[in-house]
Design a protein that fits this description.
This protein has helices at about 25-30, 70-80, 120-160, 165-185, 200-210, 215-265, and strands at about 10-15, 20, 35-40, 40-50, 50-55, 60-65, 80-85, 90-100, 105, 110-115. The chain has about 270 residues and is an alpha+beta fold. The strands form two sheets. It has an eight-stranded mixed β-sheet, with helices on one face. Strands 2-7 form a two-stranded antiparallel ribbon. Helix 3 packs parallel to helix 5 and helix 3 (about 120-160) runs parallel beside helix 6. It is elongated, with a radius of gyration of 27 Å. The chain starts with 8 loop residues before the first strand and ends with a helix.
Amino acid sequence: MNEKTEKIIKLGLYAYYLAEQINLKNLKADFTAKLLNQSNSELFYEISEGAYMVVYNYGAVVFANMNQIEMSKSIHLLRNYCHHFIDEKIDEEYYILTNDISDLKFSFNELLTPRLDTQIIKITMLNLAQSVALDYFQNTAESLLNDIKKFAETLESKGTLNLSKKQMLKFIGKSLNTKNKIFENLYIFDTPDVTWNDELIDRLNKGLNATFELKPRYKEIESTFKNIEDNLYLFMELNQHQESNKLEWIIIVLIMIEVVDLFLTKLF
């Protein structure tokens, strides 16, 4: 009796968040690998047969079927096109498996698919890139929130904010700048055009969105920034009140000096 042997193909995907922005225009002009697809936000390359790299302008890069040496060389090259390169390692790993199955199956670290082609690979790479970008945004938002907590602890223990108006404004500027960078990348959650014409790709994209919890994680970042903004508003009110009190005391002291001077003038 002959047993049917299933041929399983396993493809490894590795995503890295490299920088706040990657200059795709300059990269495209210099990079000589085969360009399969391009847009204002991404460049999708075939590095060698069955091996791919996609670079996104919001700072993420995803490799498919490439070994560690090849990926390290590519990252070293991409540093030349990065704006504000991130030294902290922010990465994610995911696998695509295909064999004789009837439908898509998702898990936290792998995808089972009935077919494997560049569209399947590209959509999976897109969702993995979004996920690793959210990792960076979550870390940044949490860092800002921790700073806010320290200010609140100082306010609780000392009854005052040890922040000048300039320091407060600089922190507000940093928070707003970070929030704007995140919201500028809202388009990363847009549904890719290719999903309109392929029912499997559409279900794949929705399934990966749910697997990586992209929208709930983004909502969490939104909530964190709302918390930060509420605290900053209160801190600014307190800071302005402190500045107003200082001004009032300066005026009182000046008036007292004038009164004393007038009194001494009349006395002598």
